[in-house]
Amino acid sequence: MHMTNNHVQTEPLKDKLEDNLNKIRNELGGSDDIIIREIGFGKDRIAHAAVIYTDGLADTKLITDFILDSQTQGNHAEEIDHATDEDNLLDALKSLALNLGDHKEITDFAGLYSNLLSGNTVLLLDGFARGIAAGTQGWKGRSVSEPVAQSVVRGPQEGFTETLRTNTSMVRRKIKDPNLWLETMQIGKVTKTDVAIMYIKGIVNDKIVEEVRARLGRIDIDGILESGYIEELIQDEAYSPFPTVSNTERPDSVAAELLEGRVAILVDGTPFVLIVPTLFISFFQTAEDYYQRADISTLLRIIRFISLFIAMVGPALYIAITTFHQELLPTQLLISLAAQREGVPFPAFIEALMMEVTFEVLREAGIRMPRPIGQAVSIVGTLVIGQAAVEAGIVSASMVIVVSITAISSFVITGYSMAISIRMIRFVIMGLAAAFGIFGIVVAMIALVLHLCSLRSFGIPFMSPFAPFIPADHKDTIFRFPHWAQSTRPRLINQKNTTRELMSRPTKPEK
What we know:
Blueprint: H1 17-27, E1 34-41, E2 47-54, H2 60-73, H3 77-81, H4 86-97, E3 103-106, H5 109-116, E4 121-125, E5 131-134, H6 164-174, E6 180-187, E7 193-200, H7 206-217, H8 227-234, E8 246-248, H9 251-259, E9 263-267, E10 273-276, H10 294-323, H11 331-340, H12 348-368, H13 371-391, H14 397-412, H15 416-436, H16 438-454, E11 456-457, E12 460-461
Antiparallel strand pairs: 1-2, 2-4, 3-5, 4-5, 6-7, 7-9, 8-10, 9-10, 11-12
């Protein structure tokens, strides 16, 4: 299927070839990479035509072998010479373009520019207000390699690339079903970026597909350069710190989400594919959870949720206890902390704030600098600055330990966008802990839970299956049940085909 999000109406092609070529040269500014070759078709070159393509986007060798050389070698010449009318001549040219694979007929300049600037080759014929676009894309692209942000110990070691057609083919390799449907549209008045949605007909909720189409169709913007543009323009809640659209660069993860009834949004030019609708629990699940045994996966998920709690309220608890609730600490630990803080001139909140901001600066510097240097800066900088700050009496050793554990815990959260949200919320909870102690933390957590329960992702409650509570869907949340025990798909996401498998528990062979 193909849909077009076209905001510009252009005039149809003209009968005279020279007029068409002049308009193309003028509107494209005489760009050097737009190659126009005027040729003649047939034995006597009676058909005056032009071959137009974009150098760097089209496969030049393919064009030379199957269009330019074939007319000099006499291929299809007899068929072209015996063409009696416009339709017959166009059919003859289509048979010539058939050697290149995909081809389509174009009747206006909008279609011509769209194909030309997408790597296709355009054939225009003198005397006809129609042309043919042949598929000759041949630009250089990054080869399939290991995912950078979502690597696994066990599982496929391939990730998406920046080429849309390569990405769709990688998903089709995983799901060889004719019900895997693909719809493509162009978004961006200037960039005209190809955006595709993939879903499995018969499993997906049709209302979700319609909502995805509607939200993408409402986008009116000059350019789409990455899937992050799409995410921000289609998300349910504009001002929430939590992401309601997830992304992945793993084809196996996309295939698994499609099998649950979700919709994948692929954007040309980026290896990150959007998944909708998404749930809170999705950001704490990894592809490797389903490649390891159920007990190992469950243990790892429990560790992630413990890390979530530490990353969110670790420094806040330290501030609240050392400032307001010292009676909660054992006497020996309280004496040790008091001795460490004896020479520190700042209250616990300012101390924690300085260390957290310093660590965030070091983390950002490590990401932005060249990779070999960045790793050295982040590791050496953290060690040196932390030790020097303790020796100088600016911060206590216990605060360095708390901030370090908090930082390590934040790396455990699998969803990068969710990890950033937790880092933002951490500072707010630290401020409430400094003002009201543990009571401030409790109020912050209550407000946080209420906010999460109010969120939706394409109409699906964000906290499902916790709120609303759906017992049948808890087989793949905090605990990961064995595959043979997960016989149904998520109820709220998929309401049409809920049965995933009909398999009984494995048994030992009879003796």
